[in-house]
Amino acid sequence: MSHAFTTDDITTRYSIRRGKATQVLLRLPVWGRSSTVVPELGVSGKAGAFRRTGSSTVRFLATTAAGAQMRISYDGIPATARIDVVSMRPMPRAPAGVQQIEIRFRAGAATHLTRTLDILQGEAP
Fold first, then answer.
1. What is the pLDDT of residues 26-52, one digit of tens each?
2. Has residue 104 got a pLDDT over 80?
3. DSSP code, position 57
4. Whole-model pTM above 0.90?
5. Contact predicate 53/43, CB 8 Å
6. Which sign, positive or negative, has the C-alpha torsion 54, 58, 65, 96?
7. Nearest to 105 by CA among 86, 79, 71
8. Minimal CA–CA distance to 40: which of 76, 80, 8, 72?
């Protein structure tokens, strides 16, 4: 895994080389229980459970409870991935709760993914 930072975005590259039996779970919290996560590309569905559609890119628009916005893009997510947005109740490290994007899939022999967080307005998460 590697990260690259600019003033407007954070790009994370993942390389998974463990084989077909490796179960992968990617998580990305959006702070505040009243935050929103809206699908923009590569997924369909509602009520937090999504399925992949044609595009090899999966993209969401997230707005935190404080009003900060970011566009979250994942490139390289397998078509068989399960994608959920889970509402998590308050806890010590997130006293206002969290909306969390969870992407689950089995990795191939060599799986390469890229996640980009584009900060649109407000402060970074």
1. 999 898 888 999 999 998 887 678 888
2. yes
3. E
4. no
5. yes
6. positive
7. 79
8. 72
| Residue 72, CA distances (Å) to 61, 80, 92, 105, 120 in order | 6, 19, 25, 18, 10
8-17, 43-52, 96-105: least confidently modelled range: 43-52
Q: Which two tokens stand for residue 43?
A: 């997924």
Instruction: Report the distance separating Cα 111 and Cα 36, nearest Å.
Output: 29
Structure tokens at 99: 């909306």
Encoded tokens for 111: 């799986």
The amino acid at residue 3 is H
Q: Is 39 in contact with 49 (CB distance < 8 Å)?
A: no
Report the C-alpha gap between 113 and 99 in whole angstroms: 22
Q: Residue 24: pLDDT above 80?
A: yes
